[in-house]
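Summary for the funding panel

The consortium committed to producing paired sequence-structure records for every protein in the target list. Below we show the first two records in order, beginning with the earlier of the two.
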Amino acid sequence: MPAPFPGMDPFIEGQAWADFHARLITDISDILVPNLRPRYAVRVEERAYIEHQSSIPEHVRETFLVVHEHATMEVITVIEVLSLGNKRAGSDGQREYLTKRESILQSAAHLVELDLLRGGQRLPTIEPLPVADYFAFVCRAYDRPEAQVYAWTLRQSLPTIPIPLNRGDPDVLLDLQNGFTRVYDRAGYDYSLDYRQPVQPAFAAREAEWIAARLPS
């Protein structure tokens, strides 16, 4: 059964985010490799930290993608899908991510950042963001501090965004909607998500009514 929404499914955030994050990272890699070989290699990489938000410290591992120039293994582009911990205000996860983000922005690498979470604290930007539920940022090394901002709401499909490479090489286009649809179908979210539960974080009344109207009875 297809997803009941035109783009992101807001029920994933509160029920299956870790699973979705892992599947989406893998799917994006699978999409990119045929379009980047043999000049570039795509690797799933990992960072680890200890989160102290509860009485028992938690060891956390987060994955992200790195596009390398194959001949030199130089880092060309880093692709991040934000996690719940990255957006939790004052958390170790947020501090770790902001440190990593600043390091990338000070380097010669491009950064592509996907914020597919409505909840949590939006990460800092130079200019105010438009009103939207979801964002994608394409920060080209040679255009900084400017960045391309893609913003959309729950009622819209996910955009197609460019993945920048070395100067002289054309961008590779990443169709986020197709990626989301594949992940949704392969994960079986149509039956494994509990659509009887309230959406977290909650919507205002008008959007909540729209969501309810789209769900199977």
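The next record, for a separate protein in the list, is shown here:
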Amino acid sequence: MSDQKKKISPAAIVLMLFAILGIPFLPLLISWQWDWWEAWVYAIVFILGFAVSRLLAARRHPDLLSERAHYMHQTDAKAWDKKLSPMVGLGSGFIPLVAGLDALFSWSASFSLHVKILALVIILVGFALGSYALIENRFFSGMVRIQVERGHRVVSGGPYRWVRHPGYAGSLLAYLASPIWLDSWWALLPAIIITILLFIRTYLEDKTLQDELDGYREYASKVRFRLIPGIW
């Protein structure tokens, strides 16, 4: 446990706290509309989803959180992912940021309650799928690399039976549904940009695994779809 703690730098802790506590509350902090119940639900779902998934993942794979906390300092990470990973991670914060600005300046008309409830269900499914992937996969690093020192191998159980990158699939659902839940047409713009980056990252990661991870090509021949069942 002490070795694991040493690997988590103060900068990583500060960044993590900002991502967990700051970003989910951006719609409320920017709009200053403290009676905006959808924004409260969004923040609570985000924070609880993060906390519960990490707790369950740490219980099953004690070394996983250390790997994820230290991912920006991995020297063997792919050069392209050193750019893409932060872009996707930080870029996702633009969804609640733009939604907050939208609410402040009243740019968008509201969605109907039925549509927003559907969006919330999709967000919850996205969080559940991403959490399931994290808990199932001991090698769910924040940066694409072949984790030789951790005995990297193919994971084919749990949600990996359905698509090859269920963590990204879950993120995709949450990204695209969040603007609707937060009543912001404009927040769909960063969501779409992040979706494009996510598809690029999925393609490059899948190619890396097929080229460099033993057994992954055989797994890919059985689980045909990378991100969206029946489509891609």
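Regarding this second record: The CA atoms of residues 6 and 38 lie 38 Å apart. The chain has a mean pLDDT of 89.
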